[in-house]
Recover the amino acids of this structure.
């Protein structure tokens, strides 16, 4: 009777995969499961290269419950192009949910472009959900960086 009622009311059936806290160990297990190479930096943060771009996987919050996938474009932009790069980021953010795109000016005066996807996992996450979130961060970040590559082709990549 319970199953019939749940089906009629459109209740979601539980698969037995119970949400558990996100940890760096779970993210590292995900890397291993998908045969991705990764590293742990001096601060204990996980990172890796995807399609030639550096991505980090951070856990923030009081209980390390916020997962952030943060990618860095593999090139820098001259400070003179800051306004146009900010416009590109703002247009991206206005049209899309993921990733959040922004630019930072480094101490050397060059512009550093970043894409990030952050999710509050206070109530835990299943392995399938974690898989989706990590792939979302990597794939949408890569899409944004691909669009930057189209707007700003690498002059060294073009034959003279």
């Amino acid at each position: 009777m319970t199953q019939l009622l749940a089906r009629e009311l459109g209740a979601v059936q539980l698969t037995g995969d119970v949400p558990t806290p996100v940890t760096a160990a779970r993210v590292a297990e995900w890397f291993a499961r998908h045969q991705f190479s990764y590293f742990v930096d001096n601060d204990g943060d996980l990172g890796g290269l995807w399609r030639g771009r550096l991505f980090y996987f951070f856990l923030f919050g009081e209980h390390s419950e916020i997962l952030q996938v943060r990618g860095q474009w593999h090139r820098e932009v001259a400070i003179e192009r800051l306004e146009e790069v900010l416009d590109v980021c703002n247009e991206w953010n206005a049209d899309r949910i993921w990733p959040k795109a922004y630019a930072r000016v480094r101490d050397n005066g060059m512009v550093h472009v970043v894409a990030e996807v952050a999710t509050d996992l206070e109530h835990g996450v299943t392995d399938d959900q974690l898989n989706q979130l990590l792939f979302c961060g990597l794939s949408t970040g890569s899409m944004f960086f691909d669009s930057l590559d189209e707007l700003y082709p690498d002059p060294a990549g073009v034959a003279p």
Summary: The first helix runs from residue 2 to 9. The chain has a mean pLDDT of 91. The chain has one domain: 21-152. The chain is about 35% helix and 25% strand.
